[in-house]
Design a protein that fits this description.
The chain is of the alpha/beta class. It has 12 helices and 12 strands. It has a 10-stranded mixed beta sheet with strand order 1-2-3-4-7-8-9-10-11-12. Strands 5-6 form a two-stranded antiparallel ribbon. Helix 1 crosses helix 2 and helix 5 runs parallel beside helix 6. Its cofactor is [4Fe-4S] cluster.
């Protein structure tokens, strides 16, 4: 089978405008001093952003009115333009399509559960990993998102929650998962900068817990090792999707560079170092990777690394893209796969499916919006 090229360097387009959310605490204070304002104004501005969830400088009422326009132009340029929004699950799932300054599109999905609110965010416009069953991967990589463009998705979600957009909640996000468009570890610096802003206590960040943030990867081994060295107790999710090299070479082309054993060894080291259980993401595809034999192979791969305390398998019913040969497994095959893992003692969960009726698979809404209108 001919493999699509893997893209590790994002194409260069117009550089995203510099934003407050791109800056460290010291950089924010330096920027304010550079505008001729006292340093303490930086703390006031951060309280507006992270405590009051305000992103329009004109609303910073304790900042002199004469400087608000310049402040907005220099440090609060528009980042995300709302294009389209779709809801499902009685309004508890909200998928939003955003347009960036250069016309690139990205998606985020806000999901309300009984005990938590989760945001699935994008780290790139498109994706260069070329997984054939993924709408984003087939669309290719447009560019990396900036730190601010990533963080702005979190701010927008908290603003939506505060305004009562999602029934039953007016609070803040509990969880952020980097499972939207793009390969997070291929945009490492921007992703880590955004994560640090999420973790930074108020008033300089969102004050989230590292345990509430999940970073997903198809298996960029050097970047996983770099993430391990960060020493943060983030949850790591490996998009494995196949238990052997022959099949994974086809489903996840990055496997041609880093094979199953090497990538599983690397995430096992992450679990040992951080004391955080790794999630193995496995999209179930009919007659492709969903047989009992595949389940047995998966159990063997994981068991070789030690007892089951380090890992949890998260099975994902595939949300097929229109016209694709890749489709969801039969329910009986899902049940047999799960039963096989459970007999081997492998912790396994079948993911709750959300948003099938709203172009729920990652990249579907952006792909639809990017298509030219028919006459």
């Amino acid at each position: 089978m001919k493999q699509l090229p893997l893209v590790f360097e994002a194409p260069r387009k117009g550089k995203p405008p510099k934003h407050w959310l791109d800056l460290t605490l010291d950089e924010r204070r330096d920027a304010i001093v550079g505008m001729g304002l006292p340093r303490f104004r930086a703390d006031q501005i951060s309280r507006h952003v992270f405590d009051r969830l305000e992103s329009d400088a004109e609303n910073f009422t304790d900042i002199p009115a004469a400087i608000r326009g310049e402040l907005g132009e220099q440090l609060f340029p528009p980042l995300l333009t709302h294009v389209k929004q779709q809801t499902a699950d009685a309004g508890r799932t909200v998928k939003t399509l955003w347009r960036l300054h250069d016309g690139s599109l990205l998606e985020s999905v806000l999901m309300r559960y009984p005990s938590r609110t989760t945001l699935c965010i994008s780290s790139q416009a498109g994706c260069g990993m070329a997984c054939p069953f993924c709408a984003t991967g087939q669309g290719g990589l447009k560019r990396n998102l900036s730190q601010a463009e990533i963080t702005a998705q979190v701010l927008a979600a908290d603003q939506a929650l505060a305004s009562g957009v999602v029934p039953g909640t007016t609070g803040r996000l509990n969880n952020v998962v980097f499972m939207g468009m793009g390969e997070p570890l291929a945009n490492y610096n921007a992703v880590m900068g955004a994560i640090r802003t999420m973790l930074e206590p108020s008033p300089n960040g969102f004050g989230m817990s590292a345990r509430g943030i999940t970073v997903s990867t198809v298996g960029l081994v050097p970047k996983i090792r770099q993430l391990t060295d960060e020493g943060l107790p983030l949850t790591l999710a490996l998009s494995l999707h196949a238990p052997n090299d022959e099949l994974r070479d086809e489903l996840v082309p990055i496997n041609n560079r880093w094979k199953v054993d090497e990538v599983v060894d690397t995430v096992f080291e992450y679990a040992q170092t951080t004391k955080r259980r790794v999630s193995i993401e496995y999209a179930m595809m009919r007659d492709i990777n969903d047989s009992v034999e595949h389940a047995q192979q998966l159990a063997n791969v994981l068991k070789r690394r030690g007892d089951w305390g380090w890992v949890h398998v998260n099975l994902i019913p595939l949300n097929p893209t229109p016209g694709s040969k890749w489709t969801a497994s039969r329910k009986e095959d899902e049940r047999a796969f799960i039963a096989t893992l459970e007999r081997r003692g492998v912790p396994v969960t079948l993911r709750d499916t959300r948003g099938r009726e709203i172009d729920g698979a990652c990249g579907q809404l952006a792909a639809t919006a990017a298509q030219p209108a028919l006459p």
